[in-house]
Amino acid sequence: MKQNSFPSLNALRVFEAVARLGSFKAAAVELGVTQSAISRQMTTLEEQLGIRLIQRDNRVHALTPAGDALAPELSRVFRQIERLVKRTMKNGEHARRTLTLGISSELLRWWLGPVLSEFNQLYPHLELHCVQVPEYLSRQNEGALTHELLHGELDALLTFSAPAQKAISNWKLASTNLILVRPESLPEPNAETLHSCKFVAVNTNKDWDRWVREYDTKIPPEQTQLVNNTSMAVELAQFTDRLMLLPDCYQRAAQHSGLVPVPGFDLTGKQGLHLSVRRESQREMAIVALVNWMRHVAEAQKPPSRS
Fold this sequence. Notes:
Helix content is 43%, strand content 21%. With 307 residues, it is an alpha/beta fold. It folds into three domains: 9-94, Winged helix-like DNA-binding domain superfamily/Winged helix DNA-binding domain (Arc Repressor Mutant, subunit A, Orthogonal Bundle), CATH 1.10.10.10; 97-175 and 272-300, Periplasmic binding protein-like II (D-Maltodextrin-Binding Protein, domain 2), CATH 3.40.190; 177-268, D-Maltodextrin-Binding Protein, domain 2, CATH 3.40.190.10. It starts with 8 loop residues before the first helix and ends in a 7-residue tail after the last helix.
């Protein structure tokens, strides 16, 4: 073995522990190895250096002058390495990217939530932090939501309809075909009896008025209750025997609530499901991953076609 070759770092670590703790036994306990392994490493180190570092007389492991000079410097270097490793690990934790997604409770519960574990498995370094926002983008809330996107309070926004601001990029994930649903306990209406039924509608869903015009139902205003979101509409439909229009991406959830489709009254909606991000961040790898995954989810969850 060449004397001038650089010694093993492991052997230097062993010597530092022996010198600091004063015995082979204590060093073996700290490093989780046997005393014989400690002894072999010390012999190897001294052979590599070509000098004695420890006097082994009468079981007293005293440092030689060379060992006494080397030990404190090694302790300083290894403490510095330890601090560097801890700082690197801490920085690695901070490198975990958190994406703040604005999403309604309906879309989270009935559309995105059931597949979130897939996102966590695919992108363990990304954390999706969900913040509740309105389900439908409207003139009343668009300004505030656009502001949150542009100022980094939200990294992405998932809503029906999309902001028109040029500084925001939008992806249409799915069309919103609307289906008329009823509680199972309510008899199925037809074109002649529809006008006598009670309805519940989401007041920010612009397609409700289109549906009324499309089917010329002439429903008296007092027979329609307007609410702010689909969750409330589903509850009222279920418990007060009302009909409602439902985006078909919620169809499976509606079935769990005892709501069934009324055939023949579908409508192609104009308010598609959109994902929106700041244009300046759309090429960031975390955003690209989120957009691609959301598009995959939309494709996988596309409702079956209705005849």
